[in-house]
Design goal:
Layout (H helix, E strand, L loop, with lengths): L3 E4 L7 H10 L4 E4 L15 H14 L6 E4 L11 H20 L4 E4 L9 H18 L5 E5 L12 H9 L9 E6 H6 L8 H15 L5 E4 L1 E2 L10 E2 L9 H8 L7 E4 L17 H14 L1
Helix pairs in contact: 1-2, 3-4, 4-5, 5-7
The chain binds zinc ion (2 copies).
Length: 296
């Protein structure tokens, strides 16, 4: 099996343009937002023309729908202690899954949210209830994936045990539509040592696999602007951050990086690219070449 590199490309002009830009950078996978990431989007549905343009771009570029990842809005706090806000977040996740299913994505990933000053175990159950509710409300083959977090404040999903507890509380009949993904910057910022040796990296992946009973469904490949254990979520170009290139070489040599989307969420050079310009981002091109070198 091969590595499936992808990027969260700039979507100026629409999400179909993100597909074209990812493909122009030599990517076989792509990640998009289907709503403005800073808003709940709990009411927004996706227009049919957007879906058609997106699917046409996949067809044209040869990017397979199994390699399309949607990133949910950042603000969805499915563990919010305030019942009304939590309800909105759960409704927002249903809408995310509806839109992700409409465009035919393999899955939608989300940050599980924060326990605030409440009971963390109850908070983990709320996250599982959000996943369960979304999967029950939307019948499709699109998955809902938990993403590990950098662990700022009381955010959930920092440890293998927390991710395992969330997934373990989803009913078994829905298990094949859930899972998790690992962001390298978040692992590092959360204090997991994935940089001192290949064995240290493997132990971290082993711990997530043991706690959840499955390998990751995707990775986010990001270097970190801040040191290990900083709990800060600031991505850097691979090799330009505190992690350096080597951990990525080790990850690409691990079986778990094969056959799943490996999505760059690293800085883009052309954030203001013209809406009709399908060119690759120069940073993405450089990152894809670097990853191929590290994988060989
Ligand atoms: Zn994320
Ligand atoms: Zn991040």
């Amino acid at each position: 099996m091969a590595h499936i590199f992808g990027t969260h490309a700039v979507d100026n002009g629409g999400i179909h343009m993100a597909v074209r830009r990812a493909s122009a950078a030599g990517m076989a996978a792509v990640q998009v937002f289907t709503a403005i990431p800073k808003y709940y989007g709990d009411k927004s549905r996706i227009r049919e023309e957007r879906v058609e343009r997106f699917r046409a771009a996949l067809e044209e570029t040869g990017i397979r729908r199994e390699h399309v990842v949607v990133h949910a809005a950042y603000v969805l706090n499915t563990a919010n202690q305030d019942g009304e806000k939590r309800g909105r977040a759960h409704a927002g996740l249903v809408r995310e899954l509806e839109r992700s299913s409409a465009i035919g994505a393999a899955g939608v990933c989300f940050h599980p949210g924060s326990a605030g000053d409440g009971d963390p175990e109850r908070a983990l159950e709320w996250v599982a209830e959000a996943i369960t509710g979304a999967l029950e409300a939307v019948s499709s083959d699109t998955c809902v994936w938990v993403e590990n977090t950098a662990g700022a404040g009381r955010t959930l999903g920092r440890t293998p045990e927390e991710v395992g507890a969330i997934l373990g509380a989803v009913p078994s009949s829905l298990q094949d539509r859930t899972g998790y993904g690992l962001d390298t910057c978040h692992l590092f910022s959360a204090g997991h040592d994935i940089v001192s040796s290949p064995a240290a990296l493997q132990e971290t992946l082993d711990a997530f696999e043991a706690a959840t009973g499955r390998p990751p469904a995707f990775f986010h490949l990001n270097d970190s602007r801040y040191p290990m254990g900083s709990n800060r979520d600031r991505h850097a170009l691979i090799g330009a951050g505190e992690m350096g290139e080597e951990p990525f070489r080790w990850l690409l040599a691990d079986r778990r990086s094969q056959g799943v989307p490996l999505i760059l969420e690293t800085p883009q050079q052309e954030n203001d690219i013209a809406p009709d310009n399908p060119s690759a981002d120069p940073h993405d091109l450089a990152m894809r070449r670097l990853l191929e070198r590290l994988a060989s």
